């Protein structure tokens, strides 16, 4: 089984809809991250959490919110999706060493 | 100035050749450095990490770090078509950035059969 899983893997939605992307991990890591990737812009950090009670904004948090339900679960929500949030979204985890391990990604399209 | 810079490529090399990928970073206090491989439409996969000046070898991959010159490189020996991918450099600038990784935009490598 994969160490870091993301659901859904693909999602098409309409402008204004609320969307939740979920991430689960079995690596036992405390740190979890949400990134989006756009062509030519690389990976950009949306939110990160170093433990269940510690949640921090990344460089592009506007329009997004997160919930750390447990050590193993970190969800990303788009409260009212807009077309420029169309992107590939990745969850990642890291332990005491700062190597990050990525989930398979969610391809989100907002029409 | 971007914090982590990579040439976007594509870098084209023939099969069997050495591919050399370079990355420069701006924060002199950076302590840890990583190379990820990303196939089109897939997630980044960690292939090398390096923390000290010098070379670190793992199979066909060698990471090289020079903190004085603020660059890190990845050499791929005996390049194979399956190595064709985008290679992302990532740097942890340390406590000043909240101990998070900063990624470059990646270099696309194409290995010609």
Explain this structure to me?
- In chain A, 0% of the residues lie in helices and 59% in strands.
- Chain A contains no helices and 11 strands.
- In chain A, strands 2, 4, 5, 6, 9, 10 and 11 form a 7-stranded mixed beta sheet that branches.
- With 113 residues, chain B is an all-beta fold.
- Chain B has strands at residues 4-5, 11-14, 19-25, 32-38, 45-50, 54-58, 61-66, 71-76, 85-92, 102-103, 107-112.
- The model of chain B has no long low-confidence stretch (mean pLDDT 93).
The succession of helices and strands of chain B, N to C, reads: EEEEEEEEEEE
Strand content of chain A: over 45%
The end-to-end span of chain B amounts to 37 Å
Rg of chain B: 14 Å
Count of runs of 4 or more consecutive helical residues of chain B: 0
Helix content of chain A: under 10%
**Rg of chain A computed from alpha carbons, rounded to a whole number of angstroms:** 13 Å
Can you give the mean pLDDT of chain B? Answer: 93
Largest interface: pair, residues per side: A-B, 21 and 21 residues
* Total of helices of chain A: 0
Report the strand count of chain A: 11
Tell me the fraction of residues in β-strands of chain B, as a range: over 45%
End-to-end Cα distance of chain A: 33 Å
Low-confidence stretches of chain B: none
Low-confidence stretches of chain A: none
Count of individual beta strands of chain B: 11
Oligomeric form: heterodimer
Shape of chain B: globular
Structural class of chain A: mainly beta
Helix content of chain B: under 10%
Short structural description:
Chain A has no helices and eleven strands. Chain A is mainly β and 111 residues long. Chain A has strands at 4-7, 10-13, 19-25, 31-38, 42-51, 54-57, 64-70, 73-78, 87-94, 100-102, 106-110.
Task: Show the helix and strand layout.
The complex is a heterodimer of chains A (111) and B (113).
Chain A: E1 4-7, E2 10-13, E3 19-25, E4 31-38, E5 42-51, E6 54-57, E7 64-70, E8 73-78, E9 87-94, E10 100-102, E11 106-110
Parallel strand pairs in A: 2-11
Antiparallel strand pairs in A: 1-3, 3-8, 4-5, 4-9, 5-6, 7-8, 9-10, 9-11
Chain B: E1 4-5, E2 11-14, E3 19-25, E4 32-38, E5 45-50, E6 54-58, E7 61-66, E8 71-76, E9 85-92, E10 102-103, E11 107-112
Parallel strand pairs in B: 2-11
Antiparallel strand pairs in B: 1-3, 3-8, 4-5, 4-9, 6-7, 7-8, 9-10, 9-11
């Amino acid at each position: 089984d994969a160490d870091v899983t993301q659901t859904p893997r693909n999602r098409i939605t309409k402008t204004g809809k609320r969307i939740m992307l979920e991430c689960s991990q079995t690596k036992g890591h405390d740190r979890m991250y949400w990134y989006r990737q756009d062509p030519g812009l690389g990976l950009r950090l949306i939110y990160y959490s170093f433990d269940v009670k510690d949640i921090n904004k990344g460089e592009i948090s506007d329009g997004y919110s997160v919930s750390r339900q447990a050590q193993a679960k970190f969800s990303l929500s788009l409260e009212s999706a807009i077309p420029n949030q169309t992107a590939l979204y990745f969850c990642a985890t890291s332990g005491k060493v700062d190597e990050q391990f990525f989930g398979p990604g969610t391809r989100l399209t907002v029409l | 100035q971007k914090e982590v810079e990579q040439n976007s490529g594509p870098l084209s090399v023939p099969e069997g050749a050495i591919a050399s990928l370079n990355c420069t970073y701006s924060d002199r206090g950076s302590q840890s450095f990583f190379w990820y491989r990303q196939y089109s439409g897939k997630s980044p996969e960690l292939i090398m990490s390096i923390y000290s000046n010098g070379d670190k070898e793992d199979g066909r991959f060698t990471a090289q770090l020079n903190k004085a010159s603020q660059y890190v490189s990845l050499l791929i020996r005996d390049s194979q078509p399956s190595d064709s991918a985008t290679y992302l450099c990532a740097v942890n600038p340390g406590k000043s950035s909240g101990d998070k990784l900063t990624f470059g935009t990646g270099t696309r490598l194409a290995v010609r059969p």
